[in-house]
Amino acid sequence: SSNAFKEVTRMHKDQIEGAGKQVKGAIKDAAGKATGDVGMQVEGKLDKAAGQVQSAVGKAKDDARKELKH
Question: pTM value?
Answer without folding.
Answer: 0.77
